[in-house]
Write a structure and sequence with these properties.
Oligomer: single chain
Helix content: 25-40%
Number of helices: 5
Radius of gyration: 26 Å
Largest sheet: 4 strands, antiparallel
Strand order of the largest sheet: 3-4-5-6
Number of domains: 2
Distance between the termini: 43 Å
Length: 161
């Protein structure tokens, strides 16, 4: 989009005054009858070599610590709406979530059972669990299955599921 020199000067002034992109869009519409989408307004600022400043509140807030664990809760929602008391960490079963979810799954990951067998797991949109150890006929022990369920619930809650 081509702006007149007067319009370019106005946009530059608004950015220097600390206006945010939505406010600049509004002013362009009110003062110059130019209606721009957010993306168009953003591209316009890039063309003009301008960058909006972060609001003061955003600058003063410390960045979130994403590696800090969530504080323990008294009660948790289970995978299928069950209410669970916080469980102690699973002994011999380790559960991880994949960074890239397997095709056809809502969430997926890996599990290592207490006997050292590694398996991949996934949950589909219907809530069905798939477990693939790569060894035909492999079945984890009943204790490992219980620990897997507990560890999986805990890991999913930790990641916001």
């Amino acid at each position: 989009m081509e702006l007149t020199p007067e319009q370019k000067t106005a946009v530059t002034r608004w950015v220097s005054e600390g206006l945010q992109l939505p406010e600049i869009q509004k002013r362009l519409a009110e003062e110059f009858k130019l209606t721009l989408t957010f993306m168009e307004a953003r591209l316009l600022l890039i063309e003009l070599g301008l960058q909006v400043r972060e609001p003061a509140a955003a600058r003063s807030a410390p960045p979130p610590n994403l590696s800090a664990p969530e504080p323990p809760r008294e009660k948790r929602s289970g995978l299928f709406g069950r209410r669970l008391e916080p469980a102690a960490p699973a002994g011999g079963v380790q559960v991880e979530l994949d960074r890239v979810t397997q095709p056809g799954a809502v969430v997926s990951g890996r599990v290592t059972f207490s006997d050292g067998v590694n398996a991949s797991w996934s949950l589909d949109q219907m809530g069905r669990l798939r477990l693939d150890a790569g060894t035909p006929g492999y079945r984890p022990s009943d204790q490992d299955v219980r620990e897997f369920q507990t560890a999986l619930n805990r890991e999913l809650e930790r990641h916001g599921f």
